[in-house]
Amino acid sequence: MLRYLLKYNRHLLRPAEGVVIFAWLALAGLVLGSFISLFLFTLPDNGRAALAVEGGLVLPAAALLLGFAGIFERSPAPRAWMWLVCAAGLLAAGLLLLAASGAWGLLCLPAAAAPLAGGILALRKVLPALRQSIRLERETRLAEMVQKNPELDLAEAGRSVELTAGQTAELLAGLALPGFLDRARGRFLSAAALRERQTHLSVRLTEMKNGEKLSLAALTRALDAPPALLEEWLAQACRRDGFSGWINGSKDELVRAEWDAAAGCPACGAALPAGQAVKRDKEALSCPACGSRLYALVEHETLLTD
Predict the structure, then answer these.
(1) Does the predicted model carry a pTM greater than 0.70?
(2) Helix H or strand E segment including 232
(3) Which has the higher per-residue pLDDT, 304 or 265?
(4) In what order do the strands lie in the sheet with 253-256?
């Protein structure tokens, strides 16, 4: 997450113009104060005094400035919480140095627990907010990729946003973009790619003569589409183009032919149960005997009545 944040979400770490002054003052104070403390530390018998200056003055002053930065920071929320995490860390470090210097003895140790706890709580606010911001940025980039690439390779897209192909698929599924998520082949087909394939299928169905058979595997390869999607398109072709036919039970042949539901299954001759419904544009009628998928244009949702 940190690598992706630094690569694509640096704006989350960039301070607002009115707040950056606090950060520069805190940095300048830390550098100057640390030089003074280091100078005192080099003097004879001034080690404790150096720790007291660093822990009681320099670090708390820097923490106060960063606290102001967090208070005045408006947007985005993760950036404000990060200021407060840094402020809590500096204040806790200062109290620990005071305890090491002997000033106020062990009273500084429990006092250091308060900013540490505050820093942990602030960190718990930062991480979910950062994850959400990164997720939104990834979703935006994936949506742009889909618009530019009609057939988006999930592995390649995942490398661009530093996710696995499976994680990329889950992210795309949550976006509900117009298109088809082909998990089996590791790709996402845009709405434009689907329209092109459906047009190809409509032309091929129109060219088929009554009684003609077509290899379903060959049609699937020609359309470069999964069988489930092909069956859905055939159901849509019934209503849009008046297609009539069936896919046999072994699902290896598509047959174009007129058939009469009252005469039974056109593939095996078995009687079709009364009252079976056809969901237009989505599903076909299935023969309970041979499993053939039957397609026909119907005027009502009920194909057979009692």
Answers:
(1) no
(2) helix 227-241
(3) 265
(4) 213-215, 253-256, 245-247, 293-295, 285-286
